[in-house]
Amino acid sequence: MKFDGRKAQRVKMDHKQPVNLMGSDGTWRRSCVLLDISQSGAKIEVEGTLDVLRAKEFFLLLSSTGLAYRRCELVWIDGTTAGVHFVTADAKRKPAAAAQTAAQSK
Questions:
Q1: Chain centre to alpha carbon of residue 5
Q2: Which residues are paired to 84 by β-bridges?
Q3: Is the separation of the CB atoms in 7 and 45 below 8 Å?
Q4: Secondary structure letter of residue 80 according to DSSP
Q5: Which of 70, 57, 64, 60 is nearest to 24 (CA)?
Q6: What is d(CA 66, CA 71) in angstroms, rounded to the nearest whole number?
Q7: In 10 A of CB 52, how many CB atoms?
Q8: Residue 85 bridge partners (DSSP)
Q9: What is the pLDDT of residues 57-67, one digit of tens each?
Q10: What DSSP state is assigned to residue 7?
């Protein structure tokens, strides 16, 4: 289902889906509920303080064992609800490739 003018289709959760956020260095963890998810990001409701979300990157743990996860960046916060964007290897390589192309053309 596509809504809110987003590029990727989002799937709304019919039931509360418990997930966790974890710092990229593993020093913190927050319980949260997955509200909706797409290929490029998710909307979550965070339990507890949101101050740790100011980290540049963190992980969204989709399984209780932590074997299914996505690397994320915070996009927005509204009260206890937050939007995250999934960081992919392609997205990390594009700026470097663009810089390299620009340097070669000089």
A1: 19
A2: 42, 74
A3: no
A4: T
A5: 57
A6: 12
A7: 16
A8: 41, 73
A9: 999 999 988 79
A10: S
φ, ψ for residue 29, nearest 5 deg: -150, 140
Give the global pTM: 0.74
- For 95, list phi and psi in degrees, rounded to 5: -60, -40
**Length of the chain, in residues:** 106
Number of helices (H), then strands (E), belonging to the chain: the values are 1, 6
Q: How far apart are the first and last CA of the chain?
A: 45
Closest CA to 9 of 45, 34, 36, 33: 36
Instruction: Please tell me the distance from the alpha carbon of residue 11 to that of residue 34, in angstroms, as a whole number.
Output: 10
- The DSSP 8-state label assigned to residue 89 in this structure reads H
* Residue 19: how many other CB atoms lie within 10 Å: 21
Handedness of CA 70, 26, 44, 56 (dihedral sign): negative
pLDDT for residue 59? 95
Give the mean pLDDT of 79-87: 93
